[in-house]
Amino acid sequence: MFKILVTGRVQGVGFRPFVFRLARSMGLKGYVKNVGDGTVEIVVDRDPDVFAERLKKEKPPMAVIDRVIVEETDGSYDDFTILKSGGVSGLFSLPPPDFAVCEECSEEIFDESNRRYLYPFTTCTNCGQRFSISFSLPFDRENTTLVEFPLCEKCQREYENPEDRRYFAQSITCPECGPHYQLAPHGIRGVGAIRKAAELLDSGKIVAIKGIGGFHIACLTDDDAVERLRGVLRRPHQPFAVMVRDIETAEKYAYVNEKEKSELLSYTRPIVVLKKKAELYQVAPLLDTVGIMLPYTALHKILFGFLRADALVMTSANMPGEPMAIEMPDIECDAVLTHNMRIHNRVDDSVLKIVGGRRMIIRRSRGFVPTPIGIGVNAEAISLGAELYNSIAVLKDHKAIPSQYIGNTANFKTFNEFFKRAVEFWLEYLNIRPDFVVRDLHPLYNTSRYATELAERTGAEVLSVQHHLAHALSVMAERGLDRAMAITVDGAGYGMDGTVWGGEVLYVDLKERIFRRVARLERIKLLGGDLAVHHPLRTLFSIIYKHERDFELLEDYEKYLRDGESFELFEKMYVKNINTAPASSAGRYMDAIAAMTEVCLERTYEGEPAMKAEGLARRDSQIYSPVIEESYEPFEFSIDGSSRKDYVRVIRFTHIFSDSLRRLKRGEDRRAVAWRLIDYLARAFCEVVKGQDIPVVVSGGVAYNSHFMASLSESLKFYTNELVPAGDNGISLGQLYALKFLEV
Predict the structure, then answer these.
(1) In the predicted model, is pLDDT for residue 223 greater than 80?
(2) Which residue ranges form the domains of the chain, and what is each CATH number?
């Protein structure tokens, strides 16, 4: 007899019935069973190598096989059977993520002879709700919100039949025994509710729609409908995602390359940020990109079956900064299409972008969570992430499990109704008693304060990790690196010296326990602190004034000053250090480009100036030579409290902003000016790290800038994030990896 251990995503994806059918077709005897920790155990009486090869080639579409181990064993069997799950004590088995509806289910819902014809909750072992409905482990129906919908006789037969596609599929239902949709305030139920919702949408109305992870709010993509939606959601300029009927429609609205097409059609069905082909002005104002996704539930497919329109704005039904609604949203709309199945776990749509041929996740949630990431750290811990774009992560059995996207924890509702609940859920869900609670170094974040409270309650030790070190470590964790040079570029992080960081080169050596700042961007003064973040002209003033020592160059920008502001006031604030904050931030650098080129003088959503600057920039052959100087400043080591002093190189840039502004005044194309400033930033970082004999990693929100990454790639080989976001949504992974400093 031969034992075959298969590890990977092989549970909750129809793998055991597939093994059963394959073994029976080959006339093999033995068994298959789940043994926990993402492992399936198979015993066969002969041909193990042939069988293992067929496992890899013919596996179910949602299954991922990481490793196959074949060894000899004892035993004797008369047939091939599926045994009850059970195995090594202490190992855990997570459910798969929520998957997009599969092709077989899609065919059934449009087959008039099928009992699931036009049924919006049609799923099987290859698709449907998983994590969003799960409230405890193991992932069995009684531990999901579908326990409230007992299976009818027909569904029960499918569930118990190993030959059926729905064998042991926890999410299966049908019109007879499952949940249903209804439309308020019209009082229509079932398919009629969906048909009426489509009529309302086609007529220009706004409809809230409950999906598998929360409520969307939908309307047509025409300017009038979207303008009204902006007023409802109080999002004056933030880009909205668009759901399109099919891939052909996606190619009508945007340019789609093969990698982007593959992501759009994948089982995760994320929002993919694409280069615009159609204008879609109100959908994504002053951007050259638009976020597009394909239908990913049976409901979406049925809805588009009734719609005349081929595209809908489909965005989360919540006010800015608040968590995605999972109950009836308190938002003005014309109708609400809702269902009677509880969503236990909020799950936003995931967002990604192809940057320089690399898949980069911007928001990691539906379709990705709760996929674990092995990081080789032997402890139980929880990390609480960043303040903005928050996610948390838990550590168990050497694996990090990043949570779904949580959002802005400075927002009262997000912090109290989502973040705190998520912390308690994940600790209980995986039965974790943390040895460590890891937090950001910033002492005033809600998450930092909560870390102290959580540690006192659980008896854990608190570890504070500097923000940009966590960015660097998030890439190192993905790649299993112990040593790296890290380019960390984002908007803001609390620095070891009390200033705002955001454009750093770090040297990290986990084995030697070294974390050293090698270089930084030239510091500028943020006039009014956070006011400068929301009004980039203040940052531009600071940069120009630092180089020129006057503001004559900015005379054409006086028209953008707000009531009560003047350049004379800014000068006084600058000279006398009145309400200023020093910052070495790549994000503020991008803001200043947006202000100089006049594409964004007020930030109304996170990242707006940088995104508009990226959309404006066009490559030009003229470049600037980076200016890098040596400075000498103290720097503290963050893990054990010891300190050391080193030279820190400083990347100067105020001179090129002055030069660029003069070029603009002479009539040079602002697109070329924007590109050269972005290119300068990238090449300056390359200059710092060139010639190193250790891996280079790049992380932070500026890593999503396609021009920055293209310029970086021309001169440098580097790793960046692929499994978690490069922005703040991914630092919870890096925070856990920081435990390697402690040799746990």
Answers:
(1) yes
(2) 2-92 (3.30.70.100), 181-354 (3.90.870.10), 372-465 (3.30.420.360), 489-720 (3.30.420.40)
